[in-house]
Amino acid sequence: MRNVFPVLIVASFASVVVTTTRQSVCTLSYVKQSLPTSNFGLTIDPASVVVSSVTNASVNSQTFFPSAHFDYCSVTFAYSHDGLNDSVHVMYWLPASDKFQNRYLSTGGGGFAISSGIGSLPGGIMYGAVAGTTDGGFGSFNTQSDAVFLVKNGTVNLESLYMFGYEAHHELSLLGKALTKQFFNMSSTKLYSYYQGCSEGGLDSRLQKIQRYGNEWDGAITGAPAFCFSHQQVQHLYSNVVEQTLGYYPPPCELEKIVNETIAFCDPLDGKTDGVVSRSDLRKLHFNLNSTIGKPYSCPARPPKSKRQFPNFSPSPAQNGTVSAEGGAVVAAITDSLRDSKGRRVYFSYQPAAGFVDAQTQYNAATNSWGLSVRSIMYPNMSFNDSTTALNDWYRLFLVPGAGHCGPSTAQPNGPWPQTSLAVLIDWVENGIEPTTLDATVLQGKHLGEQQQICGWPLRPYWPNDETSMECQYDQASTDSWLYDLDAFKLPVY
Ligand SMILES: *[C@@H]1O[C@H](CO)[C@@H](O)[C@H](O)[C@H]1NC(C)=O
Ligand SMILES: *[C@@H]1O[C@H](CO)[C@@H](O)[C@H](O)[C@H]1NC(C)=O
Ligand SMILES: *[C@@H]1O[C@H](CO)[C@@H](O)[C@H](O)[C@H]1NC(C)=O
Ligand SMILES: *[C@@H]1O[C@H](CO)[C@@H](O)[C@H](O)[C@H]1NC(C)=O
Ligand SMILES: *[C@@H]1O[C@H](CO)[C@@H](O)[C@H](O)[C@H]1NC(C)=O
Ligand SMILES: *[C@@H]1O[C@H](CO)[C@@H](O)[C@H](O)[C@H]1NC(C)=O
Ligand SMILES: *[C@@H]1O[C@H](CO)[C@@H](O)[C@H](O)[C@H]1NC(C)=O
Ligand SMILES: *[C@@H]1O[C@H](CO)[C@@H](O)[C@H](O)[C@H]1NC(C)=O
Ligand SMILES: *[C@@H]1O[C@H](CO)[C@@H](O)[C@H](O)[C@H]1NC(C)=O
Ligand SMILES: [Ca+2]
């Protein structure tokens, strides 16, 4: 099992594997002598260590990093928890010595995947960081936590659950930082440590880990955190519950039409007609869903595709019709979000103009529903402005206009995407440069490559005069529309 990983790496980048003079430290013997020796309650299996040197690997521009080419040393090994007969695999990519910039990065996964395999590692290497990923002990880097959730039917595998929740990433960082220090002879030099992940990768467990192990990282990027996971999963079911309760199952084309109409109405509200709803809050205040009722829609048939190549693709017939009152009512109920029988809110829903993916047959796309649990928990007795100022000292929220879940949205292609957040975070941590706005790039469509800025909460973007100069403005009604009260629960929900 363990020997497949380096092969994967080489194959995916079609790189030449050679050991150069410059990377002469990328050898089995040097890595073995650099392995962590501290007693973390973990035992590394020396026979499991695999090392390979890769030169001039190239990656194309992706959601979380721009295109680049670089050399790296790939190291994988397995460890077990003392007293348990288990086996957890970790993989680290180490930059060439002359590119190393005293940084370490742990990378996260999404959904029930604890990591993105090698997919996120280039994003660390290109900033001179050692980048690490873990399999959580689930059996392989492709095995997700739900596959090992049960020991037997009815019996939860608590070891796997804790690993998924917080242990595996804690250990990944412990071992990765120790390896980095030894490998690069750092002794007393400060090693800056980071985390980057999205969705589950930003999950409350990762936020929770920041609470549990406060000194573990110097900075973390938790994109679209899937926080209050249990409640959030229920929210995912809610769209179908609405459809069942109201007895109306809107054709996907009808929902798409409602989304398109919402985008068309809301796009100019931010002062710039660019196909991007930068102020979804203004839709909440100004858009009446009922205005879509009666609008004609039509979508072509989706013919069947190869099951092998497109396992998640389901064919559908051509659809046409007009938006119905029932369709409008379903969308209104979904947007209002899940409430208990007394009308108290359980979780928040999609931001307006997001696609209604849960309402359809597949899960996962646009949410943009970032939450605010942190401010009121940390600073319960401060005014909104004071607590926000205190919070911004160490925690900043950036609402990405028109984005999908953990990536740009095809429905709003001109929207900006923060591709280089790690560089911004590094500048904040290492150079004290506070990100009042976040650098972003348009990653698709006719404005591909355009640089934009994203406002830091609670300020919101607005183009007051012409479409070229954006202001980050404070808007009380907007702020209020973002403040949710999860009052269905007596205790704070984490
Ligand atoms: C590395 O690869 C890039 C293309 O991916 C190429 O342009 C460049 O010349 C290569 N550099 C070296 C040192 O081989
Ligand atoms: C430990 O696990 C290995 C492989 O999974 C197995 O071969 C071995 O018998 C186990 N040892 C004990 C003491 O359970
Ligand atoms: C698991 O247990 C439940 C409850 O005993 C039973 O209904 C179900 O069929 C079992 N599932 C499998 C896959 O054995
Ligand atoms: C660390 O020091 C050892 C001993 O001096 C040396 O052989 C090795 O190349 C150094 N490692 C790096 C990454 O420079
Ligand atoms: C929604 O807008 C997209 C992008 O303009 C378009 O491709 C799609 O056909 C529209 N859908 C409907 C139902 O009008
Ligand atoms: C939309 O129409 C429904 C049904 O006629 C009505 O109950 C609801 O109040 C309307 N919503 C708004 C915001 O006008
Ligand atoms: C809608 O579909 C029906 C039945 O396939 C067809 O007769 C009609 O022409 C279509 N209308 C539009 C506007 O495409
Ligand atoms: C907030 O105020 C309440 C009531 O005055 C007090 O009991 C609580 O300790 C305060 N909390 C913090 C974090 O200061
Ligand atoms: C909060 O701060 C904003 C500017 O950031 C200001 O416009 C607003 O008046 C302040 N509100 C209160 C209640 O002080
Ligand atoms: Ca706009």
Automatic annotation (TrEMBL):
Keyword vocabulary terms for this entry: Disulfide bond, Hydrolase, Serine esterase, Signal
GO function terms (MF aspect): carboxylic ester hydrolase activity
Signal peptide per UniProt: 1-19
EC number(s) stated in the UniProt entry for this protein: 3.1.1.-
Superkingdom to which the source organism belongs: Eukaryota
Coiled coil: none
Any one Pfam family match given in the protein's UniProt record, by short name: Tannase
Xref: InterPro entries: Tannase/feruloyl_esterase
Uppermost EC category: hydrolase
Family from the record: Belongs to the tannase family.
Matching PANTHER family: CARBOXYLIC ESTER HYDROLASE, FERULOYL ESTERASE B-RELATED
Identification of the protein by name: Carboxylic ester hydrolase
